[in-house]
Structures are given as C-alpha cells and as structure tokens.
Amino acid sequence: MSRRRITVIPGDGIGPSIIESAVQILDKVGCDFEYDYAQAGLIALEQDGNLLPEKTLELIEQNGITLKGPLTTPVGTGFTSINVSLRKKFGLYANLRPVHSFVGTKSRYENVDIITVRENTEGMYSGVGQIVSEDGNSAEAKSIVTREGARKIVTFAYELARRENRKKVTAVHKANIMKSTSGLFLEVAREVAALYPDIESDEMIVDATCMNLVMYPERFDVIVTTNLFGDIVSDLCAGLVGGLGMAPGANIGEQAAIFEAVHGSAPDITGQDIANPTSVILASIQMLEYLGMNDKAEKIKNAVTEVIASGDRTTRDLGGTAGTKEFTQSILERL
C-alpha cells in the first residue's frame, strides 16, 4: 500500500520553522506520510518570479491535502491575496476555524469551545467590482452572495455539528441593514435549519454576536456566516483563547483541502527560534481528523494540552521561556 502524499508549503517568515515542528510531530505519532514540498509567497516570488508557481498549484491538485505555513502577499497594487487566490482556484468554499480553551494560556476564559464556519469564496472578498474613481475621492466594491453558496456553507455547518455532536448552530448576519446579500444568506440559513430539527438553531446580528462573544462565549457552539463577518468573528474567537497562535484553520472544498496557521509570517522574529508553532500543529490535527486518523489526532492534541498546562518549556507568548525547537521537543517527548 502506497504512503499518503501531503503537499507542504513552508511559507514565509517563521513558516518554515513552525512547519518543521508540525512535520516532526506527525512523523513521531506514526502518520507515515510522504511530503511534497512546494513554495508560495515572497520566497516563491524571489525564486520563481511568481507568488503561486504552477508547480505548487499542480502539487496541491495532485495530492488533494496541503499543510501550509503563513504566506506574505506584498502590500500594494498588482498583487492579489495568495490565500484568496487558492480558495478560488480550488473551490475551497468552507473555512473552518475552531477555538478551544487550553489550561495554561494567557486568556480570560476557561470554557471556550467554538467553531466558526465561514463562507470562503463569495461576499465582500469575491474581488468583484473593486473601483476607485479617477480623482481618488470615492471607491466601491461589490458583494455577491448566491443561494447555492449560502446553502453549501450552512449545510456544511449543520453536517459538522451533527458529526461532532454539537448542540447549536448560530447563523450570523446583518440582514437588518444589508437586506439583499445578508438577507438572502439568512433566508437560506432558515431553510437549511428546518432540515436539522435535532440541532438547535439560532440567528444573531453580527455586532451583537461580537458583544456576546466577549461577554458570554459559552453561549456559542457552531457559528456559520458570510466571508467578511467570518474573517472578523473567527479572529475575535481566537482572542478568547490566547490569540492567533492558538487558532488553526482549514479551507475545504470538494476536491482539495488546505490546513494552515492563520497568523501572519512575523518577519520581525524570523530565525530567532521564538515562534509558537501551536497554530500549525493544531491545523495538522484538523488535517488528521479530515483524513479519518482520529486516534493520531487525539494523541497529538493530548500532548499539546499537557505541555501547555504544565508550563514545561512553553514559548514566551504562553508564559514560558522556551524556543520553537524546545517547545516542540517537549511535545515529542510526551508522544
């Protein structure tokens, strides 16, 4: 039986070092993957003259599963977001952002367990109709929400809730003001909710959602929403459990899935061996769960939980003094 091939994109800045941590841990737990390394981002631009080389796209398509470090899209005109490009290219319509409280982190709460399911290809990030007037005094952008897109993402959220024995799905919207786009999303969310009577359904305006997440995070279980709101709400949720360093992300489509660290490439600390690799390690756990390798996913999660709770050789953002390699070694020893 041939070994499962995984495309690995180390990325920019701290990406290669934290990806190395995740790969070591996957190997230690006995995943037996074959890794096809590919470049994207600034390092690819320097080496290949392209932020997303054709070879990288081919490997993503060929293997179907990708583990990705943070990428840098150069600021300024002429460069489209690499992550947006990947989502469009491979139809990665669902962005899955779970957050879970870890004992030992610097966070205000101890009981957070929320999954944000974000529509990943439509809405304000569709890239359609971006116009700035000739005199530079006005700008406009178009938001597109389709019935099909809304149905796919809301159905994804309910199927996820059912599969993971979650109790409630909250549809987050702004239909009171954005009556066309958010209104259509909410209408579809209600239609889909009726098909899942075994799961409690709730709906909430996005600004009220943000307030309630900060005050009463225990009220939320699964959140499903449109692209822009999902981007904001998922980062807010990460703040509830210690920041983006503790939050993984998955981009899932019909034929491909990309699992990633959701934070930036942190060029200011590159090469200093101080980055927290937890985000991409948790993303690799998502990847294993997606592949049905739940036993190995559980082993890694338990090891990470133990290390953070003990404070044994944790990184600075977790209150320790260890570097990336030492923190990783602590996890490997527990495995």
TrEMBL record:
Q: Could you tell me which InterPro entries the record lists for this protein?
A: IsoCit/isopropylmalate_DH_CS, IsoPropMal-DH-like_dom
EC number(s) from the headed UniProt entry: 1.1.1.41
Primary enzyme class = oxidoreductase
The UniProt keyword set, sorted, is: Oxidoreductase
Q: Which Gene3D superfamilies match?
A: Isopropylmalate Dehydrogenase (3.40.718.10)
Q: Among the record's GO biological process terms, what is one?
A: isocitrate metabolic process
Ligase as UniProt keyword: no
Q: Which GO terms describe its molecular function?
A: isocitrate dehydrogenase (NAD+) activity; magnesium ion binding; NAD binding
Q: What is this protein called?
A: Isocitrate dehydrogenase
